[in-house]
Amino acid sequence: MAITSPKCSKESKVEARTRSWIARPILSSEFTDDPILEEVYVGLLKQKQNTSTAIQTVSSILPGFHHLKRCSSNKLLLAPLHSSEHTLTSDKLKTMLKEKGFDLSLLEEDFQVLKVPSRAARTKAQAARATKIWPLNFHPDPNIECLIDGSVFADQQLDLIERYMNVAIEAAKLEAIGDEHCNGSAVIVDPEDGRILAIAASRIDQHPMWHAVMLAVDLVAKLQGGGAWKLNKDSRESVQIADEDYATRERRIKRKYIEEAPLYYPSSLSILDLPEEESLKSTVVKQGRRNNISKRTDSGKSEAVNAEKCGPYLCTGYWTFLLREPCPLCAMALLHSRVSRIFYGVPNQCTGVLGSKTVLHAVPGLNHRYQVWSGVLEQDCRRVLQEIQNRNTD
C-alpha cells in the first residue's frame, strides 16, 4: 500500500473510538508479519569498558546490521552465520577478524550463535516484538502509524465514508444478485467534490461478468463517452456489446460527467437517497492523486506522459465503496482503472484478494497500487449480505 497521509490528529483518534466500526487498513506483510530471524555470531566482551572500541572497530571491519544496535549488554554482533554463497565457521570468522586488525583478546574464546531480526521493523508493533529479541535502531514513521491507528482520516472524512458505505448497503439490499464468489454493490466517488459517479449492484443472473464493480466501472466509462455494455433503463434487456467504433469517439482529455452523474445499474437504484455532495479531499487526497499519475519510477514517468496526452485513466484518484471484499476480477478491474482508495465492509473468505486470500495491491511488479480499508460498517454489511444470500436461495 502506498503510504501518504497528513499529520496525525489526536482529536480524530478520540472520535474514532466512539464509532461502532473501525476502518482497518489492509497492508502488505512487511508491515504486519513478525520479524524474520537470522542466525548470527555474537562475541562476549570480557570488559564492559571496551564496548565502544569494540563496536567502532567491528563496524568498520564487518559493516551491516544498521537496523540493530551493534551491542546488547556484553554481546557484540559480529557476522551472519549464513550467506547466499556459504556458511561461515567460527574459525574462519576469527581468522578474518584477526587479519583485519580486530583485537580478539577483547572477546571470550567461544562465539555464541543467536537469532536476531534480519530486517528493519516498519511499525511500532513490529519494533516492540523485535526489541524483545535484540535492541533496535528504530524511528517510527508517523504516516504509517496514522494508517494503523485510524487517525489518517479526520472525523469529518469518517462521517462521509460512512454515508457512502450506507449507499452501497442500500443498493445491495435493493438489487444485488450474486454468489459466494462475488456479491454485493459498488459506489464510485470523486473525492474532489464528493460526487457519486456510479452505483451498481451485482447482477450475475443477467451476465456472468456483471459483478457490481464491473458494472460500476463501465458506468464511469459511459460518463466519459465509452462503456462496453449498453446498460440502458430496461434492466431485463439482453446483453449488448456497444457496436460504436471506439477509434471514432471524441478524444476527451478532461473527464466530463457534469450533468449525468450518477449513473445506476439496475436503473431502479435511482430511488436511493444520496448524501449531500461534500469534498472528501485533503492533503492526503491531493498528494495521493498526484502519486497515482506520476510515480517516481520509469513506468510512472510514462504513465504521466500518457495522462497528459490522453487524459487520466478511467478512475484515476476516485474512491470506491464495496459491500464485500472484491474477487480477483473486480480487484484487477479497479487496479487497471486506477482508483486510489477502496473501502469494503465484509471480508470475502471464498475469493477475496484484498486481505483474505492474498493482498493483491502488495504484489511486486504492479504499476499501480491503491490503498484499502476493511471493516467499514461491517456488522450492517454482514446483515445485508445474509439477506441477499437468503433471497438468492429462495
User: In angstroms, what is the radius of gyration?
Assistant: 27 Å
N- and C-termini, Cα separation: 40 Å
Q: Strand fraction band?
A: 5-15%
Report mean pLDDT, rounded to a whole number: 83
Q: Ranges with pLDDT <50 over ≥5 residues?
A: 1-7, 10-17, 233-254, 283-311
Helix content: 25-40%
Could you characterize the architecture of this molecule?
The structure is a single chain. This protein has helices at residues 10-17, 29-32, 51-61, 90-99, 124-131, 142-149, 155-175, 212-223, 283-293, 298-310, 328-337, 378-393; strands spanning 24-25, 37-44, 71-72, 75-80, 112-117, 185-190, 195-201, 263-265, 319-324, 341-346, 371-374. It has a seven-stranded mixed sheet. The radius of gyration is 27 Å and the shape is elongated. By secondary structure, the chain is of the alpha/beta class. The longest helix is centred in the middle third of the chain and has 21 residues, at 155-175. A hairpin with a 2-residue loop joins strand 3 and strand 4 (75-80). The protein contains twelve helices and eleven strands.
Layout of helices and strands:
Blueprint: H1 10-17, E1 24-25, H2 29-32, E2 37-44, H3 51-61, E3 71-72, E4 75-80, H4 90-99, E5 112-117, H5 124-131, H6 142-149, H7 155-175, E6 185-190, E7 195-201, H8 212-223, E8 263-265, H9 283-293, H10 298-310, E9 319-324, H11 328-337, E10 341-346, E11 371-374, H12 378-393
Parallel strand pairs: 7-8, 9-10, 10-11
Antiparallel strand pairs: 1-11, 2-4, 2-5, 3-4, 6-7, 6-9
